[in-house]
Design brief:
The complex is a heterotrimer of chains A (326), B (318) and C (337). With 318 residues, chain B is mainly alpha-helical. In chain B, 69% of the residues lie in helices and 0% in strands. Chain B starts with 17 loop residues before the first helix and ends in a 5-residue tail after the last helix. In chain C, 34% of the residues lie in helices and 23% in strands. Chain C contains 13 helices and twelve strands. Chain C has helices spanning 55-63, 89-95, 107-110, 117-128, 133-146, 152-155, 165-177, 195-212, 223-229, 247-252, 257-263, 304-308, 330-336, and strands spanning 13-24, 27-39, 44-48, 70-79, 82-83, 100-103, 183-187, 215-220, 232-237, 240-246, 314-316, 319-321. Classes of the chains: A mainly alpha (326), B mainly alpha (318), C alpha/beta (337).
Chain lengths: 326, 318, 337
């Protein structure tokens, strides 16, 4: 078990290193870091001096090592457009993105599991067919169109919900939260649905497929032969056994949710990291792009690792098979 | 009580012509069985035809500023009291006819989609063939990169490539350059699936006798790969390509919507939606609605075709 | 024979003319076609036959677990006098587990891997009794002790995968015994186990049946197991009972040609290997059961009547056998001719 986690941790570090190389290459070669410091009309000699002071004449591996060390310390350089440290910009916007991704995941999981279980148990019912149709639409419709549609319905026509922003936020230390105000909650509704819809259809499809699979299992037949109630069989036995893949998907998708938040944040002008990233791409602000890539990679590998560990907690069989590698 | 009943082989003579064989195949049979698939195919065909003959159907060339008249701006669709011919679906704030803009935008979206898929398929197939056939370190490096890339959503990769390409090319890009960057970034985001599929098939085929025979008679590796291995993987590649066409179109639309894709001077469907989104609150719903519907229908139709193709070519995957 | 059978008491299980069909796209398949038998209190009925003969389907039909597209198409099933084949689902659920216990072939897949043995036992006990959680746990420990699991108070909180195959099958048996059922259906209970463990499980089943007076329907394709365990045996072929009778008679003096072939196939330690006779051919698929006697294409004694007329069960000494060879009534022979 421990060996398994250590092996996974090494793989994670490998991925981070690879992403580090890419983001260093972007940082170093796609934009000239000297331009961050000096203005366009700076004479060449002065530029050269800045270049040397930044260590840009060192061998590339040395520069890479320095970049990595700085990244680990949270120093990602200075944004071209904002003239502020990238780490400050990201830290300021991270709570918005994480709260949005969190709500979207909760929404997707709750409704995805409910719809999946229902259509797995009653797969020929009308409602199950409706769910299937919704899932097809959820996969086909681009996220931003769903967002626009929601805005048009609930903000323009009905005027129930705000169309942009986070509402009022409360600061808890460096973390700004929208969970403590009514307007914050209202502002979360539409972006969470928009962001979560795709994951919801994904979860629904997986739960349905797993449910159909598990219901054919011998232990379900044995549970029926033992005279257990239908409710106990469906929700006690079948559902618990479908949850293992669902946990994996929900966990692994959390990283994607954060990355997909780029689109949702743009539609709803949500002041998160995604919106910052899109502005960085529009304005070719390389340090922000490189830092965002590193950050998302870090979130991804952390989640992957956490899911691996969580897996072993839910499924007792894995605990022992991992403990004694075959 | 699992019964494995074999279907009796039909006693009909096999059609000899290529078209005859196709009409006789299970693929065609499953196509004519599903009304939804036929509808999707018809819709896709109409979309492609409208895009190709946009110049014929459109009353206006929306890419030509000289044809736009600000006096015609923000006109509602024809069926509205305020609507005016020839602006069937209304106009935007520059007096651009929405219907014409959709046709020309469809052209851009489909062009980027097809080129992006062609680029990613070529890249993925090549890398997959090379990785599978050569093996060893080359294989390891290519597939590691594929693994890492697969961890990230395609849209993120596309945005990054787009941003970096712009940084490298520097400053302001013209429309054709922007389109090329889009094709490039979409191509780079979607090659992994082709590479994995092709590599898997190569590993299976590589050890078969006919490949050994081809090697023995001294055929060079590229010839063996292209002539003998490639045809075996075209089925799955076609399925991936169809589904990826929908994804590529969505990605292009998303990039354009985010403002890093096609410029307003040569709008794709995504750009039109981006423009229209600004007029949602002032009541000009048609600017965003019709391009949005067109995009949704296009993607839905292609997805349905892709689903059907996957089931028809490989019933076991269902 | 046991004395209970001689008195006129109601049998625990009585199956009359049971028919089970599977509706498929290519037509209706008759998986069980007119099967009748009784099992008395404390009696072990062995049901034997090749795979696909309908043994397991019969078991599933009795406990009411035939899933669509299968359905009971005719006949009656009585449990201690109560007709159960047409009970509403909720009432049939209460019969399952409480009055009929079932044991499946593969103990590996019969237990839910994600729940502790204690959870699965207590859940079953509390479904069928009014015991409190702690009383149910106590009973669960007693049950595990009864089926021969050492240190049950410690082992009860293990997960299924932490038991060996034989121990797992003991857990499955304990689960089937939770509510002291009148009837246990054991569907190939030893097939998935090591040979050394098989005998232990069989002995356990026998002992439990004796001690609790439980009737046991033992489904297996292993004549050796039947010979060792059963009081009576039913030989099934293509969804019908070819021959049924006291186990000693059927094993030593089989009447039906198919049973004769099958008994020839019992490996015996005393006799030499040449006694193993092979029945030529294979059992027909359900979609292609020949008219008349389903065994006629493979039967060495088949004559014209076997190809057209389906043989009914005939009482012959203590056996009932479905074979025209034993039909003494000249009237019927003439009627066909």
């Amino acid at each position: 078990m421990l060996a398994f986690i250590i092996r996974r941790a090494f793989q994670a570090i490998g991925v981070l290193l690879a992403v580090g190389i890419i983001s260093f290459a972007m940082f170093r070669f796609a934009g000239d870091p000297v331009n961050q410091i000096v203005s366009l009309d700076t004479p060449a000699a002065e530029r050269e001096q800045v270049r040397r002071s930044l260590g840009l004449d060192d061998p590339v591996p040395v520069q890479f090592a320095r970049y990595l060390v700085q990244s680990v310390q949270g120093d990602f350089g200075v944004s071209y457009q904002f003239r502020q440290p990238v780490s400050d910009l990201l830290a300021e916007r991270m709570p918005a993105t994480l709260e949005l991704a969190f709500c979207a995941t909760i929404f997707a999981t709750v409704f995805g599991v409910l719809m999946g279980v229902y259509s797995g148990l009653k797969r020929d019912s009308v409602l199950a067919k409706v769910f299937q149709t919704i899932s097809l639409i959820g996969i086909s419709l681009p996220t931003f169109l769903i967002g626009i549609l929601l805005i048009y319905l609930f903000a323009v026509i009905l005027g129930w919900l705000p169309s942009y922003g986070r509402g009022d936020t409360v600061r808890l230390g460096w973390w700004s939260t929208g969970f403590l105000t009514l307007s914050g909650w209202k502002a979360l509704i539409m972006p969470s649905i928009t962001l979560g819809l795709f994951q919801m259809t994904l979860i629904m499809r997986i739960v349905r497929a797993e449910m159909l699979e598990v219901l054919r299992a011998d232990y379900i037949k044995f549970a029926r032969a033992r005279g257990l109630t239908t409710r106990a069989i469906h929700f006690g036995h079948a559902l618990k056994n479908t949850l293992v893949p669902v946990i994996t998907i929900v966990g692994l998708q959390f990283g994607s949710v954060i990355a997909f938040a780029i689109i949702t944040e743009t539609v709803f002008q949500w002041p998160g990291m995604g919106l910052l990233f899109v502005q960085a791409v529009q304005n070719v602000d390389i340090p922000i792009m490189a830092a965002y890539l590193m950050l998302v990679a870090l979130i991804f590998v952390t989640i992957n690792l956490a899911v691996d560990i969580l897996y072993t907690i839910v499924d007792p069989r894995l605990r022992s098979t991992i403990r004694q590698p075959a | 009580m699992a019964e494995t009943l074999q279907m009796a082989p039909a006693d009909m003579p096999a059609p000899t012509s290529r078209i005859g064989r196709f009409l006789d195949s299970d693929v065609w049979a499953s196509f004519t069985r599903s009304k939804l698939t036929m509808l999707a195919a018809a819709l896709t065909f109409v979309f492609i035809a409208m895009a190709v003959f946009a110049g014929v159907f459109a009353p206006q060339n929306p890419f030509n500023p000289a044809e736009l008249d600000l006096l015609n701006s923000r006109m509602p669709p024809l069926w509205d009291e305020m609507g005016q011919a020839p602006f069937l679906l209304g106009t935007d704030e520059q007096g651009r006819d929405i219907f014409s803009a959709i046709l020309y935008g469809l052209r851009i979206s489909l062009l980027v989609g097809f080129l992006g898929v062609a680029f990613s398929a070529t890249l993925g197939i090549t890398l997959g063939l090379v990785a599978g056939y050569i093996g060893g370190a080359v294989d390891a490096v290519i597939m590691r990169i594929a693994d890492i890339q697969l961890t990230f959503p395609a849209i993120l990769i596309a945005l990054l490539v787009d941003g970096v390409a712009k940084a490298v090319l520097g400053g302001h890009l013209d429309e054709i350059m922007t389109l090329s960057v889009l094709v490039f970034s979409i191509g780079l985001s979607f090659w992994v699936q082709y590479a994995r599929t092709v590599r898997g098939s190569v590993l299976v085929e590589k050890n078969k006798d006919y490949i050994a025979a081809a090697r023995l008679i001294g055929l060079p590796a590229p010839v063996i790969m292209l002539r003998h291995i490639l045809p075996n993987v075209l089925g799955p590649v076609l399925v991936i390509a169809t589904i990826n066409l929908a994804l590529a179109i969505i990605t292009e639309a998303t990039l354009s919507f985010l403002g890093t894709g096609m410029p307003e001077t040569m709008p794709s469907l995504g750009t039109l939606i981006r423009i229209g989104n600004n007029y949602l609150f002032s009541g000009e719903w048609w600017i965003v609605a019709f391009p949005g519907i067109a995009l949704a229908l296009l993607v839905l139709a292609i997805n349905l075709l892709g689903d059907w193709l996957r089931d028809a070519l490989n019933p076991r995957l269902r | 024979m046991r004395e209970g059978r001689e008195t006129m008491s109601v049998p625990v299980l009585s199956v009359r003319d049971l028919r089970v069909e599977f509706v498929t796209r290519r037509g209706t398949l008759k998986a069980i076609d007119g099967v009748s038998f009784d099992i008395a209190k404390g009696e072990v009925l062995g049901v034997v036959g090749e795979s696909g003969a309908g043994k397991s389907v019969t078991g599933s039909a009795v406990i009411g677990l035939i899933d669509p597209p299968g359905r009971i198409a005719g006949g009656e099933i009585h449990l201690s006098g109560l007709r159960i084949d047409n009970l509403p689902p909720e009432e049939m659920r209460r019969v399952r587990g409480r009055r009929i216990g079932m044991i499946f072939q593969d103990p590996l897949t019969s237990l839910n891997p994600l729940y502790r043995v204690s959870e699965q036992l207590v859940e079953t006990i509390r479904t069928h009794t009014n015991l409190s959680a702690s009383a149910a746990r106590k009973r669960a420990i007693d049950l595990l002790a009864e089926v021969g699991i050492p240190a049950p108070d410690k082992r009860i909180d293990s997960y299924p995968h932490e038991f060996s195959g034989g121990m797992r099958q003991r857990v499955v048996i304990a689960l089937a015994l939770c509510a002291e059922p009148e009837l246990i259906i054991a569907d190939e209970p030893t097939t998935a186990l090591d040979v050394s463990v098989q005998a232990q499980i069989i002995a356990l089943l026998k002992r439990l049946g004796r001690e609790h007076g439980t009737a046991i329907m033992l489904v297996t394709h292993d004549m050796g197991v039947i010979a060792e365990t059963a009081d009576r045996v039913a030989v099934m072929y293509a969804g019908r009972i070819a021959e049924i009778g006291p186990v000693r008679d059927v094993v030593q003096n089989p009447l039906h040609p198919y049973a004769q072939g099958l008994m020839g196939a019992i490996p015996s330690l005393e006799a030499d290997a040449q006694r193993l006779v092979q029945i030529p051919g294979a059992m027909p698929r359900l979609s292609a059961i020949p008219p008349g006697c389903p065994f006629n294409p493979r039967c060495p004694h088949a004559f014209d009547r076997c190809k057209v007329e389906r043989p009914e069960a005939i009482q012959h000494a203590e056996h009932r056998v479905a074979c025209h060879l034993y039909d003494q009534s000249p009237a019927r022979t003439e009627a066909v001719a």
